[in-house]
Specification:
344 residues, Dihydrodipicolinate Reductase, domain 2, globular
Length: 344
């Protein structure tokens, strides 16, 4: 089986990472890659690492061309997918949105955080949240998958075992997360310039960040009730990677956290629970679809401390999108995603 694929918005960091992964997928044939700004320009001119692997040129977005594909990925600014996806889905195309248009179920909350009205509430209600470790069966049946954000992936996977088993006080969860500069996208911004970001470290969005309602929604689904979450993201001076340090107060400090995490993720191909006492490093997942997790109980107290690392462009975006494609089309979940992390 060959799956024909199109990408809307192929010039950003997430889009090019998706191109890199799809070029190595044995059962996917890329047909369309759109970019209004770069229409007519060969992909390899913008991204020379793809020379010899992708021979397509960027093209203007065209519904007819995209509708000829089996699946279309949206790697676009928020607000784009919700305008284009309905026409494609009506013609039998399956859609994976790497943006935020379909991630949040409560559209009034979505509008508050993204500053616009949602244009297709019916599809938003149908969309399946694409975190395979939490919703694999629903993803297999989906016409529309909302690919999770980068921070939400690391934070949710780190907390899932604690919440599913009812092991922590869900009113006082804390997520302290750091991301490399590629998480801000490819568009020039002063705070990601080398002279601004280099030799520097700072928090942002401490009073409220767009990923907060998405994370909270996923954690509440795992817990089965509302949760209290403090989420603080930080920018660190590196290109790729997310490190999430998560805190939850244990209801029973005698619980064997290592055993809980090892059992929960035993059959997950892209979650690696490290041995006791480990401290995962972002470089250990660079370029791979793996999340590495370590659990601690400092000084034998009642605090569960979870450390989770991922590549924000792979498991936090394009790799997870490819994982979802495999599920949607009945392929082995790991197909095209077996690459080993790049180190150093």
């Amino acid at each position: 089986m060959t799956i024909t694929a199109g990408i809307v918005g192929g010039t950003g960091y997430t889009g090019v990472e998706l191109l890199r992964l799809l070029a190595g997928h044995p059962q996917v044939a890329l047909q369309v890659i759109t970019s209004r700004a770069q229409a007519g320009v060969p992909v390899s001119t913008i991204y020379p690492n793809l020379r010899g692997h992708i021979d397509l040129a960027f093209s203007e977005p065209d519904t007819e061309a995209l509708a000829a594909c089996d699946v279309v990925f949206f790697a676009t600014p928020n607000g784009t997918a919700m305008e284009m996806a309905p026409a494609l889905i009506d013609r039998g195309v399956r859609v994976i949105d790497l943006g935020a248009d379909f991630r949040i179920r409560d559209l009034s909350v979505w509008s508050d955080w993204y500053g616009m009205a949602h244009s297709c509430p019916a599809l938003a209600a149908e969309a399946v949240y694409g975190l395979p470790e939490q919703g694999r069966d629903a993803i297999r049946r989906a016409r529309l998958v909302a690919n999770p954000g980068c921070y939400p992936t690391a934070v949710q996977l780190g907390f899932l075992p604690l919440l599913e088993a009812g092991l922590v006080d869900t009113g006082q969860l804390v997520a302290d997360a750091k991301s490399g500069a590629s998480g801000a996208g490819r568009q020039p911004r002063q705070h990601t310039l080398l002279c601004e970001a280099g030799e520097n470290f700072h928090a942002y969005g401490a009073s409220g960040h767009r990923h907060l309602p998405e994370i909270r929604q996923g954690l509440e689904a795992a817990a089965g009730h509302p949760v209290g979450l403090t989420f603080v993201p930080h920018l660190i001076p590196m290109i790729r990677g997310i490190h999430a340090t998560l805190y939850g107060r244990l209801l029973d400090p005698s619980v064997d956290l290592q055993a809980v995490y090892a059992a929960r993720f035993a059959d997950e191909p892209f979650v690696d629970v490290l041995p006791p006492g480990s401290h995962p490093e972002t470089r250990s997942v660079r370029g791979s679809n793996m999340v590495r997790i370590a659990v601690h109980r400092p000084e034998g107290g009642d605090m569960a401390l979870v450390l989770a690392v991922e590549d924000n462009l792979v498991k936090g975006a394009a790799g997870q999108a490819l994982q979802n494609l495999n599920l949607m089309f009945g392929l082995p979940e790991t197909l095209g995603l077996q690459g080993i992390a790049v180190l150093p």
